[in-house]
Amino acid sequence: MSLHLFGAVLTGHGVAANNRGENEGNITTLQKLLWKGKVHTTVSSEAIRWAIRYYWQVKGYNKDKKEHVVNRVWVEQKQDHEWQDEKWEGWKKGGEKTFIDDDLLGFMRAEGSKTEGVKGSADKRRGCLEVARAISMTPFSGDLTFNAKSGEKGRTSLYGTEVHSTQYQYGFALTPERLREKARVLDALDAIVNLGEVAGNHSRFLFDFSPESIVLRITSDPAPRILYCFEESGNGTVSVEELARKIQVGDIKAEEVYLGGKIAENVSLKGIEGVKPYPGVKAAVEAFKTEVKKQLNL
After folding, report:
1. Domain that holds residue 272
2. Which long-range contacts does 60-68 make (Cβ < 8 Å, 24+ apart)?
């Protein structure tokens, strides 16, 4: 049976607010959705994936060889990406070198046919590391800040910015056997536990997406069962009562679950034998990586 890795991440508190773009209106908005009957702010999975790729780019750059481990390289001076292997030759027959972002995050390029009646072509690979959209823990109350920007000839532009002081939760899934190089699963876990600035839209706001709490699961069960398991208790604390219930009734095996950070002290999970709690998120991820290496024979 296939081995599956699942995770649920809860960030620390921060203030989400997009910077104003050139073509924005008078109000700079945050992305929102209806979640359990109330309006919550959200950060796209694409923004999280961008940050993961950038982490690999910075962490994996070989200064001596001047080589990147990622195919899609972000160039700060150009404010754009450059490809190292734009045609993904490494994935074709006989190709040897593949890049970590192509392996874990996938790729696709579709080209239309140049001849009438002939189908077009597509180079594609589904991403092995699947990332869920991040959702705020608290509903959005409509907070706004008002700002002024000086324009030409003394003109002043007034605009507002939506802000949300909250935590975000998101999840991820990964099946190591689908990777060209299984050891890259460890790089995925490193990126998630060390994820820094994540934001979307025109400009990036500083919001620390490293986990304050993390729940990890290693299993042969293809269903995650732990996504969005964090719940706001109403008094500023976070609980995981539904996760505890699933473990207690046998839907999730206790020995499959690793807890890191504040959630490791949660009363709902106290006394459940088999669950592996760690006070720090880094310690939990390192222990989880040890088990992953053992089960994958890395």
Report:
1. 4-112+121-296
2. 60/100, 60/187, 68/99
Q: How many domains does the chain have?
A: 1
pLDDT in tens, 43-82: 999 999 999 999 999 998 777 777 899 999 988 888 888 9
Provide the token pair at 281: 């998120």
Up-side HSE of residue 156: CA atoms within 13 Å toward CB? Answer: 4
How many angstroms separate the CA atoms of 194 and 56, rounded?
11
Phi, psi dihedrals of residue 31, rounded to the nearest 5°: -70, 140
3-state DSSP assignment of residue 32: strand
DSSP H helices, the chain, are 45-59, 100-105, 184-193, 241-248, 281-296
What CA–CA distance (Å, rounded) separates 82 from 40? Answer: 35
In angstroms, rounded to a whole number, what is the distance separating the alpha carbons of residues 84 and 248? 49
> How does pLDDT run across 233-269, given as a tens digit for each residue?
877 789 999 999 999 999 999 999 999 999 999 888 8
